[in-house]
């Protein structure tokens, strides 16, 4: 996964790839080096998911009227 491509992933695409990695990590016969590589990729994808969710939360909060406007 190239850095420039991963930064362009949507939440859904990153989550889908993360789900695939989790499934692969459940394979008990996977060599340790492969497990570590998959784990690293999973960490990057999880960070992308968190970033996208934080961005969505910020956008939604920006749409809410402020407490002072409601009074």
Give a concise summary.
By secondary structure, the protein is mainly α. It is built from 4 helices and no strands.
Write up this protein.
The chain has 71 residues and is an all-alpha fold. The chain has a single domain (8-64), classed as Orthogonal Bundle (Helix Hairpins). It has 4 helices and no strands. The mean pLDDT is 89.
What is the CATH domain class? Mainly Alpha
| CATH topology (fold) name | Helix Hairpins
In sequence order, what are the helices and strands, one letter per element?
A: HHHH
Instruction: Tell me the total number of β-strands.
Output: 0
CATH architecture: Orthogonal Bundle
Residue share in helix = over 70%
Uncertain segments are none
Tally of structural domains: 1
Give me the secondary-structure category.
mainly alpha
Topology:
Blueprint: H1 3-6, H2 11-25, H3 32-63, H4 67-70
Helix pairs in contact: 2-3
Core attributes:
single chain, mainly alpha, Helix Hairpins, 77% helix, 0% strand
């Amino acid at each position: 996964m190239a850095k420039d491509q991963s930064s362009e992933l949507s939440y859904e695409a990153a989550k889908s790839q993360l789900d695939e990695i989790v499934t692969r990590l459940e394979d008990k016969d996977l060599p340790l080096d492969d497990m570590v590589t998959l784990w690293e990729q999973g960490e990057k994808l999880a960070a992308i998911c968190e970033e996208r969710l934080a961005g969505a939360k910020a956008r939604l909060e920006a749409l809410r009227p402020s407490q002072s406007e409601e009074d």
